[in-house]
Design brief:
The chain is an alpha+beta fold and about 650 residues long. About 65% of the residues lie in helices and about 10% in strands. It has four domains: about 180 residues, no CATH class; about 150 residues; about 80 residues, no CATH class; about 220 residues, Phosphate transport system protein phou homolog 2, domain 2 (Methane Monooxygenase Hydroxylase, Chain G, domain 1).
Amino acid sequence: MVVVKAKIVSELAGRSLLLPDLVAEALAANGRIKFALSWLQSAQAASAGHLAHMDLEAERSLSGLSGDPLYQPPKSIVSRGDRLLIPGSTRIFARLFEDVASMRAAIDAGSAAAGLNPTQVIQFRKREEAFREASQAHDNLVPLGLIPSLASPGRPGKDSLHALVMDLHKALNAIAGALAEEDVSGARVYRLGEGDREHVMAFMRGLNRTAGLKYDHPGLATTATRDNNRLIIQNDIGTTDAHVLVVHVSDETVTVTYTDVHLQRLLFFESLFERYHVRWEDAVSRRDKSMEDGVYHLSVGQYTGRRREDLEEYLAFLGSRLVFLIDWNRARKRLRSFLPKQAAIDTLKWAADENYGHMAFLKMGGEQLVHEALEFVVKGSHRFGERLDAMLGAHDATQCLRFVLRTCSEGLRQGHSPSLIRDEIKAELLNYFRGAQQNLLDVASAHAALIVEIAGGIREVLLRCRLPAGIELIEHNARRAKEWERKADELVNEARNAARIGDSGAFFRKLVEEADDIADELEDAAFHFTLVPGEGWREDVRQSVLDLAHLLVEGTQEYLKALETARYVQRGGLREDTQDFLESIYRITAIEQRADDAQRGVKRALVCDSLGHRELFVHTESVKRLEGAADGLMHAALMLRDYMLGEVMAR
């Protein structure tokens, strides 16, 4: 027994000589105690039929008990009134308290060196004795309430063995800190073996390279020691009890054991090592009432280097990744205000891969930083909580958030003032939103170009319909107009699904929807032309309709020109651009008035000719559709004018 051996050596040479070994053994005992409590809890749960709870092989291996037959799952657990018959439990309780004694022995030996309160040390002994007395389990019969009372996290006024072990562990950490023989690149180390120093230096080289990215957040304290034939490096990462990294280095193999209460962060951690051939075991989830949500997750990854240089390169990279785990879940939640779940995680992965991290973003205000920039850009039309991907589209929103994380990180590292960083983000957001508006203008212009094509096809038909192949030309144009109208509908849907960039996004969607009525009217007119009787158009009617078609081609061309010119119209912009834009709008309104006159000319021609009912219907409907297209052009043009003068120029 280690405790007995320690007592003998203490009597011969003093306990301080054994302190490093006692601390190492006590830390190992801490892991075995936690496993023993998990085993007992699982055994009690299995008695109710939850046999899956006895699958503890991963934890058993990590605690160094994989070869001990005592901790095999029992073949049967029998309820006997207010007790449970759990095979092996009496011996497990005995070993458990041997390990508690090992922890306390190390504290007794190192309390003075660590400056621990003597009263606290005495209380440790009394608490241990009380639990030992209360935990007598003879003949493997365990009282029903015993295991929960020992394993509960404890609370004010009600102690537990679990709480005692946690207190002992904290005291051991204080002793280990005081015990450190030296500092190796910022790591507290003791009892290093041959070659260990180089491994620790490699790990710390990577850690120190990125540690500044945590700014003033606590965490990343590192300790290292040798345990038999392996180097152990431990890092506390942040401030959460269950958030721990332990690295075992043995020969050319590095084994990483990582625990976390957040499964998503654990999977994120594994994803950071894509460039290395790390063999990750399936993540294991365990229940522990003292942890957040009562569950923590454990991951084990193994990397084997071909050369010592490979091993040290991997250790350095491993150390450099830890800073990206601090407050990771908080950063993920902040980004989820603007991006879908996976896009937020991918953005954090990108920030880690590029060594920007997310802590600067949080330090600058997190989501509030982005909301303030949005308020500046969209002038009060932004609703708090509105997703950025819904406003800019998924790709641009992701790129925008990447810029925010990079700018915050680079700005703080270069000593830029927070106000300068905020202004840079506002300027970039403004570019994205202007770009999004330009994209909507692209959609509106593409839609207008299709309208020009449909109007031009109608004019072409009226010019050539008296040729021998006129009927075939009319049929072909109707089919072509139908296809163009279908493409115009697709652009309407694209505009509806495009970014909601405040009032401008809503306007351009409405504008394209209004302009789509023009495409519908023109396509309908092209269809009605196919219904003209076989003898074809009468010349006076054809010429009158052709005059109207000429005006529509001219009007649609001016509408397309107005949209293209609108790209350059802005407050303080060139006067020539504004003049060109307004002249196009004026021409469209003038064309609408001339179209009214042309429509009257068609009506006169129809009345003067003795047309049959069929001819009269076809010509009347065709002209009605063309007139509707002319009206739609004027409405769309005036909408565009009012928006550009009332919104864009007024900014």
